[in-house]
Amino acid sequence: MRQVLFVFVLVSVVMSSVIAMAQQAPPILPSGSSVQTTGQPVATPAPPGVAPQAPAPPPGAPPPPGAPSAAAPPGAPPPPNSAVQPMPPPVAPGTVSIGVLNNVGQVLESARSVKKYMRPGKIWTFVGPGGVQQLKGAILYQGRVVAVVNFDPATGRVLPMGFVVSSAQVTQKALRRAETLLPQVVSGSAVLDGVEYLAPENSWAVPLSYEGMIMGKLKIYYDGIHVVPDYVAEGEMNVAR
Question: For residue 88, is pLDDT > 70?
Fold first, then answer.
C-alpha cells in the first residue's frame, strides 16, 4: 500500500513539474498571425499562450490559408490545427507603432527562456547559388526549427552567419563532425543582450553566439512573447537529403 501511494505521489509531482514548465516556456507563434502596420496603434500584446488576433481581410478578399471560414469573435483562440501549419505570418506594408519598443525587455526574457528548451535537430545539405554545397543543422524548440547552424561543408567546422565556404561537395568527414558539434553548439550557445527589429516580418531577431561568433538568430514576434519558426529552413530541411 505504501509503495502504491509513493508511486502516485511521484507521478503527481512529475506531472505538475511538466505542466509548470510548459506554462513558463514562450509559445510558438500560430500560423496566420499578423499585426496592423498602417500607422495605427498596435493592439495590446496577448498574454502568454494566447495568440495575437489577426485582422480581418478586406471586403471581397479571400481568407488567408488556414483561417477559419467565419470571423472569430474578439479574443477567441486560433483553430486547433493552426499551430502546425508551416506558413509564415502575413506581411503588410507600413510601420508599427513606436509602442513596440517597450517590448524589448520581454523579447530578451523570452529568448533566454527559449534557450533552456532548445534541442539539436536534423543535419542536412543544401545547394546554394552557383551550385555551392551548404551543410546546415537545425536548432529545435517545441519541435519547430527556430535557428540554423552553418557548417564548413569540407571540414564540418561551425561558421559564423554570413560566412560562406565554396565547396563542390559535402564530405563524410564534415557530416560526421557536424553531427557531433550540433549538440555542443546548442548547449554552449548564448543569447546576446541585444535585439534587431525586422520590419517586413513584424518580428525581433535576437543573436545567438557560440565561441565568440554570431552563428544564428532567434526570432520573437513583435509582442515579445511568441517564437517565430524559421519557415525557410523548415522547407529546406523537409526536402533535403
Answer: no
- CA 151 to chain CA mean position, Å: 20
Identify residue 157 by its one-letter amino acid code.
R
- Calpha distance 29→219 (Å, rounded): 10
Kindly report, residue by residue over 38-53, the tens digit of the pLDDT: 333 334 344 344 334 4
Q: How many CB atoms lie within 10 A of CB 90?
A: 18
Q: Residue ranges of the domains in the chain? A: 1-51+81-241
CA pair distance 175, 155, nearest whole angstrom: 8
Taking a C-beta distance cutoff of 8 angstroms, is the pair 217, 115 a contact? no
**pTM of the model as a whole:** 0.66
Cβ contacts of 212 within 8 Å, gap of 6 or more: none
